[in-house]
Write a structure and sequence with these properties.
This protein is α+β, with helices and mostly antiparallel strands and 527 residues long. Helix content is 47%, strand content 12%. It is built from 21 helices and 14 strands. A hairpin with a 5-residue loop joins β12 and β13. α6 (129-135) crosses α15. Bound molecules: calcium ion (CA). Calcium ion binds next to loops.
């Protein structure tokens, strides 16, 4: 007992001194969260709240420094249940949820839509909406209403989005040094883009006297890799789009798609497109080799710490890729890739939680800028530094980051805003700019709230196979352009009609529901 008391005293001293320390530190703007002062008194008065939760990916370090820091900051006794990788995680989550003795207080999950519905129906999941209204400053302040709507069910909320992408994550990039060598301007239209690619392939842009450069490259077999050619026609072949007459159609059957395929076939014929884009490739390796002129790529790769960037610079010290605005098509339309508003993983509070209100309060605190940065990067000055240019730099070895458990909870409410300080100010500005330039397609993009869509489940995969065979065939020149018209006919014969009818039904229902939600959002949830 004496020993225990002594330990308690030591702990309280550590806690108090650490909180003092973090308050004294110069932190980035954390306005809006005044909770840290409140938590000081909680720490000394209240018993830590026990919270068990499932953890996916990250370093999976047991009893890590981070776990202990979070426990002190939040006055919580965490039990982190480490999930295995890949789909094995789903099996384990299912198993944990099937027994009241193993059910975690917070279940982080993904890919278990059907099971989630069963948990809700069996009364295992807590409706967090009332608690969110009371304690959800950070969660409600961070997520867009379009995202929250997707997880709002008739006045209840059984899951919180745990990771949602930035509104747009990609950009067209181009070799600035090659443009300069050739005396060319940054292209803005599709015609100019084609001319620049011709020069990149045939006019020795790297000035080594060899015919050794590629025009346009990218990640193989992904339609977004062709963004400058396709999005400039206002279409997206792997999504449902709202058309001008107010109906929803699959993006692959729209007339603009045929026009895009014509241009892609022309570009392929002229040798402007890396042929591996149509088959299979290791694009990271291609990027490092650095012999291509343009592609559609992740915005985050402009962070100086990006490993492929460092390797590219080692191969081409004078090489420079710059992001450019989306290429304009013949009608002047242009757009970047909209990420959509949906999460890919969620956290639900279960009935195993003794004090679900308190659990929601803790979740909200974990999403505050201050605690998010502690979870994701550790302590500033000790584990990382932000230099005078706003560039994030680790002060410890990457191995040590893992040992400390930093990043352990990254998939549990990941902030993708300015508090994601691993992004340089330039990269944050680019994310913000691309959120704007992706709007033209974002406004057409139809995202379904309903995950169970029987017609799509039945026909979707075959329709996508037909699309890929036809479209890649047309680009390569194995099929004539008119094969597109036959594709559209076949699409509707092979279940596309039922798929589009279903899509329109869901969309119509959603529009009404969204209006209702926005009334409630504006009245009760908006922060
Ligand atoms: Ca050359």
């Amino acid at each position: 007992m004496k020993k225990f008391l002594a330990l308690m005293v030591v702990l309280i001293i550590i806690v108090t001194s650490l909180i003092g320390c973090s308050q004294g530190q110069e932190e980035p703007d954390t306005s809006g969260d005044t909770w840290s002062e409140e938590s000081t008194s909680e720490t000394t008065d209240e018993k830590p709240l026990k919270i068990s939760m499932t953890i996916f990916r990250g370093p999976k370090t047991e009893n890590s420094w981070l776990e202990k820091e979070l426990e002190k900051e939040l006055n919580v006794d965490f039990e982190f249940i480490m999930l295995p990788g890949g789909t094995e995680a789903q099996t384990k989550i299912n198993l944990l949820m099937s027994d009241p003795n193993t059910m975690p207080d917070i279940v982080w999950w993904e890919g278990l839509e059907k099971e989630f519905r069963q948990w809700v129906n069996a009364g295992l999941i807590v409706d967090v909406l009332p608690y969110l209204k009371k304690h959800g400053e950070n969660i409600l302040g961070y997520y867009r209403p379009e995202t929250l709507y997707l997880y709002y069910e008739d006045g209840k909320m059984y899951r919180l989005p745990a990771d949602v992408a930035e509104p747009c994550c990609m950009t067209t990039i181009i070799r600035k040094d090659w443009l300069d060598n050739l005396g060319l301007e940054v292209p803005t239209t599709l015609d100019e883009f084609m001319q620049v690619l011709r020069a990149f392939v045939y006019d020795d842009p790297d000035q080594n006297g060899k015919d050794d450069t590629i025009g346009f490259s990218g990640q193989a077999r992904e339609w977004r890799s062709f963004a400058p050619f396709i999005y400039s026609f206002g279409v997206k072949p792997d999504a449902f789009l709202l058309t001008e007459d107010g109906t929803v159609k699959h993006g692959s059957v729209l007339p603009g798609m045929k026009e895009a395929l014509k241009v892609l076939n022309q570009a392929y014929k002229e040798g402007l497109i890396d042929p591996t884009l149509l088959t299979t490739n290791d694009f990271n390796q291609i990027f490092i080799e650095g012999n291509f002129g343009a592609c559609y790529r992740w915005i985050a790769s402009f962070n100086p710490g990006s490993t492929s960037w460092v390797s590219f610079k080692a191969n081409h010290p004078d090489g420079e890729y710059i992001p450019i605005e989306p290429i304009k098509g013949p009608t002047g339309f242009s757009s970047d890739e909209p990420s959509g508003n949906a999460a890919w993983c969620w956290a639900s509070v279960t009935t195993a939680a003794e004090d679900p209100e308190k659990v929601v309060e803790i979740i909200d605190k974990m999403m505050s800028p201050e605690i998010y940065q502690l979870r994701a990067y550790g302590r500033r000055g000790e584990h990382y530094e932000i230099d005078e240019n706003g560039v994030f730099r680790l002060l410890i070895e990457p191995e040590e980051v893992n040992n400390l458990g930093i990043g352990l909870t990254n998939l549990f409410f990941y902030r993708k805003d300015e508090h994601n300080i691993q992004n340089t100010p330039e990269v944050i500005a680019l994310f913000n700019r691309r959120a704007e330039t992706a709007k033209p397609l974002a406004e057409k993009l139809v995202e379904f709230k309903e995950q169970v869509r029987p017609m799509w489940a039945e026909y979707g995969a075959d329709l996508e196979t037909l699309r890929d065979e036809t479209f890649y065939g047309i680009i390569k020149g194995d099929l004539p352009i008119d094969a597109f018209d036959k594709y559209v006919e076949k699409f509707y014969e092979m279940g596309g009609k039922a798929v589009e009818e279903e899509a329109n039904e869901f969309y119509k229902k959603q529009v009404e529901e969204y209006e209702e939600f926005m009334e409630i959002y504006t009245r009760e949830l908006k922060r």
